[in-house]
């Protein structure tokens, strides 16, 4: 069992100051406070492709590691961190496209598939499993039709439960823009999923 | 209000993002608009179908943490190296190069001399003469393409190259300790990690390298194997009871899923007779919340004993 470390903001501030002075253990403790959440966002965003999610995780925390000495407490650390997560997710899409030719389709990746299938209980009938598999495939395909921004907003709202104003702060844009992304995303998903919705 | 505006509100209703007035207006509209009602039903159905997010398995998080630790380590090493080069003025580059060659010859002498008379840390497997030879001899795995398009004449990929190396030497040899520490943190096989931590737990080790302590703390906190965590905890107790050791014990007490390890942590804390407020706070929490009755009783006894003093 790996736990997520919780703690007060003062403890966090102390960890940041230590990490800024090069204390690697403090940096790790800081990472462990947030990394499960970061990995969860990355996994939702990448359609449960754990390889891609782990790439996002690495990129996020390496950027944090490099940029932390310049962090001046102008914003909360979590806000600053989630902005990095958002930026990495949005640019990850571009990097992934560059190597897409060699990677498996994000629904067909073995590890992703196993995670998707894990959601379905073993006790279900084979018909139910086949149906669930079909739905998962459609959902993954539908998510691929979204732009990176739409997918990110939808992921953060639907899967991670963030409020739209929080997402706006993370993405550094107006709440109205986030609403537009969410609306367009749900419309597109509804269109793509029509065959299995009826 | 326009029909199109209500349509935009429908997803927001499902996510609880409308205020009371907007909700009321939309509900009034829905009563009179079959198209929007159908859209709402479809969205509700779609939300059920999309499901909730899956939990991240512990082993996935653990492997991501390990990889990050390794990448940070190599980044720090690269940073130190580049700092050294940037610090040198250009005219000293040649001198530095010559020094590096001399240093390399010195290291080579020490390593290869070891093949004849067998001092601590003897490298038995012949050292690799050049980097291409190492690729020929190594097992290549985990090839991941970053750029597989050869149209511009360039490709980019990462891979792991491994080759067997035999090393024999004193457990106090710094290099041996460092390799064992890395085996403990990065080894894939729990049996290997268990053996590594067993060696690191020996009382033959007089002056452990700082990396040993870091590796033990990492294993205590993160290793997925109960046996490895238990051995690592035992080895860690050979070190002086400082803040790092204390925090590791408290971490085990609050977070380890195995009651035997939590009991070992309490026993270790007890032997320190600590009245440290942080220790007492964690013990008090444990005596209230731990799922194991024995641990709750034991924590209470240690707290009471500390308070009596």
Structure characterization notes:
The complex is a heterodimer of chains A (198) and B (309). With 198 residues, chain A is an all-alpha fold. Helices cover 74% and strands 0% of the residues of chain A. In chain A, 37% of the residues are buried. Residues 1-5 and 99-124 of chain A have low confidence and may be disordered. Chain B has helices at 3-14, 20-32, 34-50, 58-87, 93-117, 131-137, 174-186, 190-200, 210-222, 226-236, 243-255, 259-271, 277-289, 293-308, and strands spanning 122-123, 139-147, 156-162, 167-168. In chain B, the strands form 2 sheets. In chain B, strands 1-4 form a two-stranded antiparallel sheet. A two-stranded antiparallel ribbon of chain B has the order 2-3. At the A-B interface, helix 2, helix 3, helix 5, helix 7 and helix 9 of A face helix 1, helix 3, helix 4, strand 2 and helix 9 of B.
What keyword list fits this structure?
heterodimer, A: 198 residues, mainly alpha, 74% helix, disordered N terminus, B: 309 residues, two-stranded antiparallel sheet, 14 helices, 4 strands, flat
**Structural classification of chain A:** mainly alpha
Fraction of helical residues of chain A: over 70%
Largest sheet of chain B: 2 strands, antiparallel
- How much strand of chain B? 5-15%
State the secondary-structure class of chain B: mainly alpha
Q: Largest interface, and how many residues on either side?
A: A-B, 49 and 47 residues
Note the overall shape of chain A: elongated
